[in-house]
Amino acid sequence: MFATAVVLSLLFACTGPADDTGGTGSPSGDGGSVGDINPDCDPLVPDYCGMPFPSSYYLEEDGSTATGWRVALGPTTMPADIDGVQPDPRYWNEFDGFSPLGTLVVFWPDVSLDGAIRHTDLAAYEDADAHTVIIDVDTGQRMPHFVELDMSGDDDSRRALMIRPVAPLTYGHRYVVGMRGFVDNSGAAIPPSEAFAALRDGTPTGDSRVDDRQELYDTVVFPTLEADGWQRDEVQLAWDFVVGSREGLTGRMVRMRDDALSRVGDSGPRYVIDEVIEPYSEAFGRVIKGHMTVPMYTESDSPPTMLTRDADGQPFYNGDTDIPFVIAVPQSLLDDPHPAPLVQYGHGFFGEMEEAYDTWADWNEQLAADNQWIYFAVEWTGMKAEDLSHVSLMVASDLDGFSMLPERTMQGFVEFMVAARAMKGDLGADAVLTQLHPKTGEPVALADPDRMWFYGVSQGGILGAAYMALSPDITRGVLGVPGTPYTFLTTRSKNFDPQFFTLFRTKYPDPVDITWWLAALQIPWDVGDGSAYAPTLGSGDRLDGVPEKQILIQAGVGDAQVPSLGAHILARCVGASMVGTPVREIWGLSTMESGSVGSAITEWDYGVEEPLENRPASNDVVDVHDSVRHEATSQAQLKAFFEQGIVIDPCDGGCDPD
Fold first, then answer.
1. What is the DSSP letter of 577?
2. In this structure, is the dihedral angle defined by the CA atoms of residues 391, 397, 402 and 404, taken in order, positive or negative?
3. Using CA atoms, how far apart are residues 492 and 614, in angstroms rounded to an integer?
4. The predicted structure's pLDDT at residue 36
5. pLDDT tens digits, one per residue of 581-630
6. For residues 450 and 320, what is the distance between their CA atoms, to the nearest angstrom?
7. How many CA atoms within 13 Å lie on the side-chain side of 287?
């Protein structure tokens, strides 16, 4: 892959030689035990500075935010890299809480998963004797999750325990996490840390990091667990955290959207047609290339860059940027000219807009030609080909600058919405989108602005979840082989290992550091991921200006690039149902009849085993990720969804191609 070449070329240029200590910035006992007072470290987990995470230990009161809190990672909370470079948490500390789908992490050396909730038995989160709970303090409701060890590294002695929410936590709510019944691999009970035992037993320690939290534990943490049936003396570890507010997670993007669309108006942005290729291919008889002028909210119009920030930390208009666009008209429509639907396409992993129409993208050729649909596309700024080398360099040398990726992706969302507005306005009505009628000789408008849909595949489906939650103009979207949240997908995706994990492991040889980083990175990543926005679709409390939406998710069991477990999480976010006869039951989802109206998920099963652990599936026999979009059954389902607004069961007895 191109990504591999870029990463390997950067590897030794951007990193120093690894030593053999196995540690980086947060070795065992680094300020973690009672008496070794480092205010940046929580002593509840003495074997690793920044755990448990996320935690209210890393929050400070702030009356200016919607939650009343602000993230407050200390100057040395983040692990330093192998060269001793200490990342700056400034961009994390802008948020008023933690991710609604972030992973919770703890490091207990040699911990066993005996009795823990696994993703194969999610209903066990409700068991009276469950080893772990995530409880909404406001409602007393347990939240579904599963538990696993991070298997992305090779050192069995340095595997952190991860608690994975599988449905979005509520914006702005406080949650209590409880752990009990855990043993090590010899069967001996994991002892509570000195600090946690003191809180549990009400014993003063002289350490303000512990004693100052006694009231919180006595009035919130332990009462929440006891109301759920837990005994105080059985708890091995407990803590609390606050999820970021809806305003804190989505407000900046909504502000950018509203400002940009008001600037371009109903007619859309200024644009220039640069080239018309006719014919282009057997499928697409006319390909139109051009560029349009889009409002910009980043400091620069090229990577690496961040959002602009005013005195209140809000993005502001920073002039305009020109972006390329493409429109592809099928030959079948040119032969039979009439107003036709418009499909906005979202490309894959660090890809390009050519995926919408080029001859190698034969699934799009098929859909457009068979259905007489006009495709149009721009690129996912933030995660397009131009960004790849900059993102790789950031991973290798400047993780505290990670926000460049999601914040530039936010600019990309603006560009997608402006492009849709262009096609509803002047660009869609341009003479280049007309065709002379073969009988009358009169020009016929080809674009029907009232029928506009979104189709995104892979990364296009991942980012498409956010886009659909934000767009005021598109009401039906198909998300092909998607998932959320992004950090959940990484260790189960072959796209990230070895491409990005090679860089990561060179800078952070301790696997626990990488586990912590993946948990922490979701906080700034939320704003450029579906995790912050998609829950507004399933809750019924849509973002301002957003009409009712229908979402169709098409996924594959055993996908090695975007794991279908991530698609299940996304389905719960958007309120999707299974349809007809699914190939397997998806926990927490109802089933709708074929031909129903609503949001849905369908899976295709090629017989590829889905790993229990957080590793990529094998695609040695079949490439599940690529196969789903090529199935005649998936294309028939997509057609019915777009054109009729219904979800059909496209397979007889479950979609399990031979």
1. E
2. negative
3. 5
4. 65
5. 999 999 999 999 999 999 999 999 999 999 999 888 987 789 999 999 99
6. 28
7. 19
Supply the pLDDT for residue 621.
83
Q: How far apart are CA 261 and CA 618, in angstroms?
A: 44
Judged by DSSP in three states, 346 sits in strand
Q: Is 13 exposed, middle or buried (0-12, 13-18, 19+ CB in 10 A)?
A: exposed
Neighbours of 254 (CB within 10 A): 17
Secondary structure letter of residue 344 according to DSSP: E
Residue with tokens 């994991």: 190
- In this prediction, residue 37 carries a pLDDT of 81
- Helix/strand/coil (H, E, C) string of 298-333? ECCCCCCCCECCCCCCCCCCCCEEEEEEEEEEEHHH
Q: What secondary structure letter does DSSP report for 24?
A: S
* Positions of the chain with pLDDT under 50: 1-31
* Sign of the CA dihedral with 505 first, then 510, 515, and 520 last: negative
59 backbone dihedrals φ, ψ, rounded to 5°: -125, 150
Q: Collect all residues with Cβ–Cβ distance below 8 Å to 85 and sequence separation of at least 6.
A: none
Give the H/E segment covering residue 447: strand 447-457
Q: Is 126 exposed, middle or buried (0-12, 13-18, 19+ CB in 10 A)?
A: exposed
> What was the pLDDT predicted at 540?
85
Residue 38 tokens, joined: 């480092």
Q: Is-contact 413 462, C-beta < 8 A?
A: no
